[in-house]
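Q: A reviewer asked whether we had any structural model of the full assembly, not just the individual parts. We don't, so I'm hoping you can provide one. Inputs are below.
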Amino acid sequence: MKDMNRRTFFKSSVAALPLASVAVAQPAWAQGADFKSDVDILNFALIAEYFLSAFYREGSPMLSSKEAGYISDIGADEDAHIAAITATVQDLGGTPTMAPALDYGDVFNDRKKYLGFALRFENLFGGAYLGAAGQISNKEILQAAAGIYGTEERHAAVIANLLQEPAEGGVFNGALTQAADKRTVLQALRPFVKNPQTTTVEAAVTL
Amino acid sequence: MTQPRLFGGGPVMMFADDRSRRSFLKWAGIMGVGATLAAAGARSGFASAQADEGDIGILNYALTLEYLEEDFYGRGADSGLLKGRAGEIVAAIRDHETEHIAAIESTITDLGGTPVKRPKLDYPKGVFKDKRAWMETALDFSQLGVEAYHGQVTLIQSPELLMAAAAIAGVESRHAAVIAQLAGRQPFPAPIEQSAPKSRVLKTVKPFISG
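A: Here is a predicted structure for the entire assembly that you could use as a starting point for your response.
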C-alpha cells in the first residue's frame, strides 16, 4: 500500500528541514520543562520510534493477512520517522540516540496481546508527542513533530478498530488527545529495556 | 494528490454574517498567505499575555470547519445509512465535533474574541443518497480536517492554544484513519500528516461558499 509519493513527500517535508532558527533560545514558558533542547526532544522521540519499529518488524504469526498488512504499513511509518528524526538531529549538530536493546516479553504468539501492546504504546507515544509539542523551539521541527504525532494517533485508532474496541474508550479516547509527560513514558518503557544502565537510554531511563 | 470534490462541488455553507465569512476566508488562505502571516504576526510588545488577534482568527477558522464537521457527521449518524460499527464510530465522531465546538467557542470568548456564528449549510443532492456516497465525502472531508489543523500549527502564537489545537488535531487524525479503514482505503496516507497548502484549501473551500 506504500508508494513513492509518501516517501517523496516525507523527504521534502522532514529530512530537508530548514534550520535557520536553530539557535533560537528556549522560550520562557518552556523553562523547567522536561527537555533542554529540541535535540533532547528528538532523541526522546527516537527511543519511542525504535521501540515501535522493532516491535512491528518482529510481527506476529497470529495476525490475519489484512492485519499483518496494516502492521507492516505502520512499521514503515515508524522507520520513516526514525530516518527523519536521525537526520534532523544530525543537522542540528546533535548525536542521535542509538537503538536500545529491547525485550518485549511474551506477546508475539497471541493476537490480542500483540495488538493490545501496540495499541497501548501508540496511545502513549501519541500523547508523548503532544506533551512535547509545546516545548519545541524550532517551528519547522514543530510542524514535523505534529505531523508524526497525528500519524501515531492514526495507528492507535486503526489498531483499536482491529481489536473491535468500543468507539469511545477504545478507538477514540475522548474529543481531545491527552498529553503524556516524559516520566510517564520512560516508566512505561523501562520494563522492556534490556540493561538500561549500559544503553544509551541510560540518561533518560535513570529518572 | 487528487483534488477532493466535496459535496459534489455544490455550495454548502451560507455564512451567518459577513464577519463570519470574511474571517473564514481569511484563515482559509483565500486572502493570501501574506495577509495571513501578517495578521498572525501582528502583535504588540505587551500583547503576549493576551490573545493574539491572529490566534483568535485561527480559532474562528477552526470553529467554522468544526461546525461543518458536526453537521455533516451528525446528519450521517442520523441518516440511517450507517449501521453497526460504522454508525457507532460516526456517532462518536459527531460527539467529538460537538465538544470541539464548545471548547473553541469558550476559548475564543475567554480570550476576549467573538466566536463566528454557525453557517447555514445546504448540501447538494446525493451526499446522503447511500452509504458509499456518504463515505466518499467523509474520506475527503476528514482528511481536509486534519490538514487544515496542521496548516495552522506554526502560525499559532500561544503555547497553550497550540496544545489545545494539537489535542483536537490528534483526534481528527483518528477520525480520518478510521473512516478510511471502514471504507477499505489506506488509513495511513503519509508517515507524517500533511498540512493543507493554500492552493488546496482555496480550491476545496470555495465550493462551500455561496454567501
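A: Points you may want to mention in the reply: Confidence is low (pLDDT under 50) at residues 29-51 of chain B. The longest strand of chain B covers residues 13-14.
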